[in-house]
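Supplementary Methods S3. Input chains for the assembly prediction are listed below.
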Amino acid sequence: MIRISKILLIATLVFTACSTKDDGQDTAGTDGGGDTNSFDRGAMLENWADNIIVPAFSNFKSSTQQLEDLTVAFTADPTEENLIALKSQFESSYIDFQTVAMFDLGKAEELSYRRFLNTYPLAASEVENKIESGSYNLELPSSFKEQGFPALDYLLNGIGNANAEIVAKYSSENYRNYLLDVSKRINSLTAEVNASWQGDYRDTFVSNISSSSTGSVDKFTNKYIMYYETFLRSGKIGYPAGAFTGNPSPINVEAYYSSDLSKKLYVQSLKTTQDFFNGKYFNTSQTGKSYKQYLEFLERGDLANDIISQFNTINSQAANLDDSFKSQVETNNTLMLVAFDELQKEVVLLKLDMVQALSISINYVDSDGD
Amino acid sequence: MKRSIAKYFNSYTDAAPLAVFRIGFGLLMLASIIRFYLNGWIEKLYITPKFHFSYYGFEWVKPLGDFTYLLFIVCGTAAFFVAIGYKYRIAIITFFLSFTYIELMDKTTYLNHYYFISILSFLLIFLPAHAYFSFDAWKNSGKAFQKIPRWCTDSIKLLLAMVYFYAGLAKLNSDWLFNAMPLKIWLPSKYDLPYLGDLMQQEWVPYAFSWSGMLYDLLIPFLLLYKRTRFVAFLAVIVFHVLTRVLFPIGMFPYIMIISALIFFSPKVHHQILNKISFWFNINKVKFDNNLLLNKSRNRKAVISIISVFFLVQLLLPWRYLLYPNELFWTEEGYRFSWRVMLMEKAGYAEFKVVDAESGKRFYVNNSDFLTPFQEKQMSFQPDFILQYAHFLADHFRKDGHSNIEVYVESYVGLNGRKSKSYISADVNLLNFDDSFKHKTFILPFYDEIKGF
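Predicted structure tokens for the full assembly:
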């Protein structure tokens, strides 16, 4: 009896000691490197942060600074020449945005960064009302659809047919102010997110190697898959093509007012998700640890290859698409639906097969299992 | 033979083990209910969801809105009364009914453990667990007995043995033994466990765990029954359940199994436990030690018949899967209520399409509009969930003014590390089928083989 009660006591202690694991945050240290048999998630997080996320944000920050500077120049002196320069910067900044859009973590998540920068379709009539009244507060969540890149797209391309016509609009001070405010807000939000990655957040992200759903790998993988499924597959292709409704909807095209930007944005976004899977550094050809290497470590190289080859299929299919998704949807929507189907196959591979192989949970309730 | 059966049913044993079991069971159940509440699960699992997955035939069992909390209070109170043995019969019946009602509200949360609790509490209704060391026996010495029929404690041992043994049988399959699946997927993801993390990365570890888990489940009932191995077996019970607790999120179950396994020990051990409790709470235990036999009650025959039928059902139920074609793990027809524990890493992806049959117009359903992430996860790989959800969607969209509705699903399922495959025929209108115990013909074949039970 005494033996049994002692054993029960020890068992209870062990339980209690182990039960603290429930809270997720287990900082046992990043000592995974010593054992060649284990995959070093800490090193993967470092690769993600140092070679992909931080450089992408830092690049995007210069881009939005340039965007603000050229907006200041244009609003100070609204000429066609300045408009053309600003338009071209707008395009390249919008493309650069695709390299950071999926990193909805930390500061970006807290600020609703992505929603402020790229909620479309734009509420164009609301934008016109606000310009006319001259009173607005772009910090309100209710103004998601009235700012960011979709608003710039409208203000630089949608308010007139020829450049001269657009420039003429900017004789109004209200137009100049709104354009400037939108551009400044993109830059200041980006500055905040970039600063957090330059500061403490990088370490917070990299050191959280916990295997629980609060660990960085689990958390970001959820974000990655959500970005791919919701913003890339549905947002850029599915909604405009009417994949969910059967009715094509050109107004849902990203960069609706630009003549040939939508495909570039799509291709860049696709490239970002693909490069991330492969662990490719931002803007160089080097690669580090990411999902591909992780799957290979778990002897699921077959799955990694399937995912890569599906990315290739999607890319080669994209070559058939019109530069303007608006005209693609209006003239031959079948090709858009084909693109959707190919993207969909990748969703299954990522969201089901990869997540299962990595034993990551997809935002599930933390209930008991058998 | 007949005589020896009669003799068995007339043999008596000490009531202390059953009393200890009653106390442990009641307290652990109370703790489970409190833990469930503290984790916010009542809200998350039963109040928040707009839709609940019912068991076939139990569609009328639904959460009660805010009264669901009351249901849990009733259940927890009943558990406490069971523990102290106050108005035992009413308390255990209330516990069985309220607990089972809770489990029937939504099959999303189905766990073999919960089912075990349900049937165990059903069994306890018929056992004189309050005959000794209980409030009932204290207050009414006419109801106090120190000796109870032997089959009363043996029936709990039998139930425990069945659970383990069937769980062991279910592990005799090629995925578990020869591919070490699903442990091969689960264990390496525990890389951040202190001390064990690196070990979990070794290739032989999932195999060792699979085989020892199988042997443990098959042998432990016998090792606990046999006096000379009992103590070592009990150590094994502790080690095994501690390990599962460390590796997997399985809540209160390990505690329940460890405390339950105590019933295999001799009355002497239980008297010592009760002496300890008496000492702590200043109870005069001697008052219960009356050496009286619990005599044949009037309805003894009825009770023994009920319990016999109960065990017969328990014995047969896990084999019902043999009545269905295709791979059990794939279709899950006959999977539940069979002690198939931790056998599968299975996940799915299901996208529903609602079609207007006349105009051909269609749209896709955003599952998160109707289901919690947990419900969506469970739904996406279980055909009965998929079917029930399809009918729910049809009802919902009919109310919204849609007509001529057809519902299709594009679904994929991955099982134990195999690449995902199409699961349900994408061109079948699910509304053409009603749920039943019949084989669901819209499930696509598995294209692989898992040998064994």
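The two ends of chain B are 33 Å apart (CA to CA). Chain B touches chain A through 65 residues (CB under 8 Å).
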